[in-house]
Design goal:
The complex is a heterodimer of chains A (626) and B (302). By secondary structure, chain A is α/β, with parallel strands linked by helices. Chain A is built from 15 helices and 27 strands. Helices cover 25% and strands 27% of the residues of chain A. In chain A, strands 7-15-11-12-14-9-8 form a seven-stranded antiparallel beta sheet, with no helix packed on it. In chain B, 32% of the residues lie in helices and 16% in strands. The chains are: A alpha/beta (626), B alpha/beta (302). The structure holds guanosine-5'-diphosphate (GDP).
Chain lengths: 626, 302
């Protein structure tokens, strides 16, 4: 018999408690005294039926408020499998609990009320499940009894959700139409939905492939405890995070980087020939080395990353908001070190998947940050290894766990470009398209051109001088032998963006396409100069997110409106003042100035050449050109 | 070289429990293991031996003795302690009563379960324990379903179910301020069935009380109470010899027996599989109110 841990999520009243109650009831995991208590409670509440939902509604406070507020664990077993359910509530304020419940799950059940269809919450649950790396997602379309067991409705919801889930890169997505209340397709096949030929929910749970995501390749053994009964024995106790190990194999200890050989793999029952991910063992080594808790034992030819600069997605789990530059404890595997959040890259709106620029995270916020640790930690990307890719942050004053984090990688230096794969989550993708790696490495292109690829993004009011400066700068770079490209507002609106107007929505789309274009030219190794009013912070942030850190140079051409209006090279301001142009930035549409651009230049009373000179110096500082 | 005998879910549960116990030993300075004499705490001792083998179990066993024990429990405890060369510390409820720390309940079979809390907290304070390992399982009772592996208690030993630290992946946060302590529950994910299956697979010895035997009992409020020096008959009641066994072992005044002819572990597993009542269903103190357990937990009950 094996073990499947799964989580459940649904909006309030989608029927999650009823479904769990039904699973427990139909698999005979409920005892008479529990059932009697529920019958009692149902009667007291004046309900005309036995409310199975009450079986799982835990604490008294919740019962009083009639809602579930925390993660609760339930257990049941069939002859094939033991199941552990992490029952997590789905409303927004409890994202934290969903993350907790999903962190150890291999499958997520997402409930959808057939009457309501795919709601924002249903997407949020899917997003969080995929973020936490749950390999199997089961969408239970519930309350089919209330939509007349309609196949059409089922297909409609399934299609809707499928198109959303494609953006998330979910490996395994299954839909099952059910009625939790009446039991249809939960444990027993429904006679009322003959059109559905798939398996019942329980059958699916019993047969889904477990352990497939376990990493059996990369041996990682975080030392948990040193067993030293006497002078003759020194065993390094721990649970293998991933991979396998045998006596006689060569190993390397981090952080000391000393190598030695495994003498034995010990358990209470005796030494083992081989131990695998998940096994609690004690290793002994042939050489006496100084190894302690927090060290990691690996193979010399298969090392994890070791770094103090980490790029991570975190979920803030504390009522106390994040504080910049506060020292937290970071706990990852068995290692603990001081750490601080060195940069907030963005917050993800879990409903729209948009990125927001924020100054701090509050309870239930999720987003991308950079963390600096006092000691190096040894890790793999969360997507490759849940055990070594996860961490928590602990507040040193309250000792509360304030964040749960998933490592995306080390913070790359300018010379060391990260793959952009994980970005896809936030970019639209056509159906049935799979990401392929770039054919020629950017580093190779750069080696040939002799400079780095970069996107130089000029933002500022119309008439601020963006284009003149960018044109002069491009000429200067080109003459020096650089590979360059200039993308200008008026040019892209001929052709590629010729279908767009100037409404806020169209402006956003305009910038989105330009950002993607710039990212493509960037990939060709070019220095891409973009000159767009790009008045909205969020749009610029998105473009920034498409290229690696350090390669996006935002240049804020900070010319006062009066000056721009005085110059009015294209006569636009005059026309806008007369009301002939709608949505004129600065006049009838806002301009959100960048808060921390890489470069801010003033133009009043300055020559273009002077500004260009300043920019060239900055580009040198940033390592783009020599 | 040996191959492990247990496989699948039992092996995963075992490995998880060992991991938690080692984590406790590593993160805390003065752990103790709460030993009630029941099968769950016997299992805990078994797993602790595995976790630290070939070293000794690095924490003492603490028994909160209500004074209302079946003699078999104490005999078994002392033998186990000797065998594992573990240290034993006994906290006595009787002593707390004598010292005026708590007051005995009135009535025909005064339960001392409620009183245990005070003795427990006093004993932990005396030992300067910063964490107490308990054999609690989440499947036992609704309130336990939300319990963490590492459960934080405030200075007054209280549990705040609404303000628990999130427990993500296998990262347990045992950081604490002076005066605060923890309960740790390595068996959180085991069910009663898992425990029995594991005991059978590992051939773990249990007190004879768990197996069917003849004993004098009286049925009161639907619970079969065993004859002992602590249980007095009410007017109109009489002792009656029946074939029974115990599904949990605790205070003799409130632990109910089950009529059963299960005399081997296999019999018991078959019985558990067919059971229609939770283990605690046989404990008269849990019946007092639906939320009884939760109330006691908030106060520091293990
Ligand atoms: N008709 C119908 N009602 C359902 C079904 N599943 C749940 N319900 C009802 O929907 C309401 C909310 O269910 P509950 O399980 O408490 O939802 P939760 O908030 O997701 O746990 C209750 O009144 C249930 O009886 C179903 O399949 N069909």
């Amino acid at each position: 018999m094996d073990l499947l841990r799964f989580s459940t999520a649904g909006s309030v009243d989608d029927g999650k408690s009823t479904l769990i109650g039904r699973l427990l009831y139909d698999t005979k995991s409920i005892f008479e005294d529990q059932l009697a208590a529920v019958e009692d409670a149902s009667a007291r509440r004046g309900e005309g039926y036995v409310n199975l939902a009450l079986l799982t509604d835990g604490l008294r406070a919740e019962r009083e408020q009639n809602i579930t507020i925390d993660v609760a664990y339930r257990y049941f077993a069939t002859p094939r499998r033991k199941f552990i359910i992490a029952d997590t509530p789905g409303h927004i304020q409890y994202t934290r609990n969903m993350v907790t419940g999903a962190s150890t799950a291999e499958l997520a059940i997402i409930l959808i009320d057939a009457r309501n269809g795919v709601l924002t919450q249903s997407k949020r649950h899917g997003f969080l499940s995929s973020l936490l790396g749950i390999p199997h997602i089961l969408v239970a379309i519930n309350k089919m009894d209330l939509v007349d067991w309609s196949e059409e409705r089922y297909e409609e919801i399934a299609a809707d959700y499928t198109s959303f889930a494609q953006k998330l890169g979910v490996d395994d997505l299954t839909f099952i139409p059910i009625s939790a209340l009446l039991g249809d397709n939960v444990v027993d096949e429904s006679e009322r939905m003959p059109w559905y030929r798939g398996s019942t929910l329980l059958h699916h749970l019993e047969h889904v492939n477990v352990g497939a995501h376990r990493n059996l390749v990369d041996f990682r053994f975080p030392v948990q405890y040193v067993i030293r009964p006497d002078q003759d024995y020194r065993g390094y106790a721990g649970r293998i995070a991933s991979g396998t190990i045998r006596p006689g194999e060569e190993i390397l200890i981090l952080p000391s980087r000393k190598t030695t050989t495994v003498a034995s793999v010990d358990t209470f029952e005796g030494p083992l020939d081989e131990a695998t991910a998940g096994d609690a063992i004690a290793l002994t080594t042939t050489d006496e080395l100084d190894i302690s808790r927090g060290d990691m034992i690996v193979r010399p030819l298969n090392l994890p990353s070791a770094d103090t600069e980490i790029d991570a997605t975190i979920c803030w789990t504390s009522e106390q908001p994040m504080e910049a530059n506060t020292q937290y404890w970071l706990r990852q595997t068995t290692r603990e070190t001081k750490a601080f959040i060195s940069r907030i890259v963005y917050r993800i709106d879990v409903d729209t998947l948009h990125r927001d620029e924020v100054k701090q995270f509050e309870l239930n916020d999720i987003g991308r940050v950079q963390i600096t640790t006092a000691q190096p930690i040894f890790f793999d990307r969360y997507q490759l290894n849940r055990e070594t890719g996860s961490f928590v942050l602990i507040d040193p004053h309250t000792n509360n766990t304030v964040a749960a984090g998933m490592i995306r990688g080390e913070v790359k230096t300018v010379d060391d470009l990260p793959p952009q794969k994980s970005e896809e989550v936030l970019r639209p993708v056509s159906p049935d398209v799979v990401w392929e790696a770039w054919n020629i490495d950017l580093a190779v292109r750069e080696a040939r051109s002799g400079h780095k690829a970069a996107v130089i993004w000029f933002t500022g009011l119309s008439g601020s001088g963006k284009s003149s400066i960018a044109r002069a700068l491009e000429s200067r770079l080109f003459e020096a032998g650089a590979q360059t490209m200039l993308l200008d507002g008026d040019q892209v609106r001929h052709g590629i963006n010729g279908d767009l107007g100037f409404s806020p929505g169209d402006r956003t789309e305009n910038i989105r396409r330009v950002g993607e274009l710039a990212a493509l030219f960037f990939r060709s190794g070019s220095i891409v100069l973009c000159t767009f009013v790009s008045p909205f912070q969020a749009d610029r942030a998105r473009a920034r997110g498409l290229v690696p850190r350090g390669r996006f140079v935002e240049v804020f051409v900070d010319t006062p409106l009066e000056e721009c209006e005085r110059r009015d090279a294209k006569g636009l301001y005059a026309r806008a003042r007369k009301g002939e142009i709608a949505h004129m930035t600065g006049i009838s549409s806002p301009y959100e100035a960048p808060e921390s651009p890489e470069v801010r230049v003033e133009t009043v009373g300055r020559e273009v050449d002077d500004v260009v000179g300043e920019l060239v110096v900055r580009l040198r500082d940033l390592g783009v050109v020599r | 070289m040996v191959l492990k005998t247990i496989e699948g879910h039992l092996r995963q549960l075992e490995s998880e429990s060992i991991f938690v116990m080692r984590e406790v030993a590593a993160q805390f300075e003065r752990p103790v293991l709460l030993f009630s004499g029941g099968k769950d705490s016997i299992l805990m001792v078994h797993l602790a031996r595995k976790a630290f083998w070939p070293g000794r179990v690095p924490f003492p066993l603490v028994h909160i003795d209500t004074g209302h024990n079946f003699p078999e429990t104490i005999a078994f405890r002392d033998r186990l302690v000797e065998e594992t060369s573990a240290q034993l510390r006994v906290g006595s409820v009787q002593a707390s009563i004598d010292a005026g720390r708590v007051k005995e309940e009135e009535g025909p079979n005064p339960s001392r379960n409620g009183l245990q809390t005070v003795t427990l907290l006093d004993t932990l304070a005396e030992l300067k324990a910063d964490v107490a390992l308990g054999g609690g399982r989440r499947d036992e009772e609704k309130a336990r379903a939300k319990e963490r592996f590492f459960s934080h208690r405030d200075r007054f030993g209280q549990w705040d179910p609404k303000n628990q630290r999130p427990e993500v992946w296998n990262l347990f946060n045992g950081r604490r301020n002076p005066g605060e302590h923890f309960r740790a529950f390595p068996l959180s994910n085991w069910t009663e069935m898992d425990v029995w299956q594991y005991i059978a697979a590992e051939e773990i010895e249990l007190p004879s009380l768990y197996f069917s035997h003849r004993r004098n009992v009286v049925k009161r409020d639907g619970v079969l109470l065993a004859e002992s020096e602590f249980n007095r008959l009410l007017p109109g009641e009489a002792w009656e010899e029946r074939t029974i066994r115990f599904r949990t072992i605790g205070d003799a005044t409130c632990t109910g027996a089950t009529e059963s002819s299960a005399s081997t572990l296999d019999d018991i597993i078959a019985e558990v599989a067919a059971a229609r009542e939770t283990e605690r269903g046989g404990r008269s103190d849990d019946k007092r109110s639906e939320a009884a357990m939760e109330d006691r937990k908030k106060l520091g009950y293990f």
